[in-house]
Amino acid sequence: QVQVVESGGGLVQPGGSLRLSCAASGRLFSLYAMNWYRQAPGKQRELVAGIRSGGSRNYADSVKGRFTISRDNAKNTVYLHMNSLKPEDTAVYYCNAYYNEQYWGQGTQVTVSS
């Protein structure tokens, strides 16, 4: 069983930045595909960004050029660096680890508001 724990959410003004962290357990972390999803009130959960074990990345069109996903295998951690935040980025952000099956964290709230 892989444990996934997110941190780093909070309240930020439009145009601001936040860094989310996601720690996942397991000695095979470097082999996990890691993803960030988000779910806004009344909307479906959507994929925001993903990073494969080999380092390749993908992003939703809505966050390209503003968000960056990275990983530190020595720390079993993946990060989501979010810049130029907009009110429409407000959501609960979930970390997902995939290795044979999917594992989810509990989510962290990001609110972008003045």
Q: If you had to describe this structure to a student in words, what would you say it looks like?
A:
The chain has 114 residues and is an all-beta fold. It is built from no helices and 11 strands. Strands 2, 4, 5, 6, 9, 10 and 11 form a 7-stranded mixed beta sheet that branches. Strand 5 and strand 6 form a beta hairpin. The radius of gyration is 13 Å and the shape is globular. The relative contact order is 0.33. The model has no long low-confidence stretch (mean pLDDT 97).
How is this structure best summarized?
This protein has 114 residues and is mostly beta strands.
The chain-level structural class is mainly beta
* Spatial gap, N to C terminus: 40 Å
Number of helices: 0
Overall strand count: 11
Radius of gyration: 13 Å
Helix content: under 10%
Estimate the mean pLDDT confidence. Answer: 97
What is the overall shape? globular
Order of helices and strands: EEEEEEEEEEE
Estimate what percentage of residues fall within beta strands. Answer: over 45%
In the predicted model, the low-confidence regions spanning at least 5 consecutive residues are: none
Tell me about the biggest sheet?
Answer: 7 strands, mixed
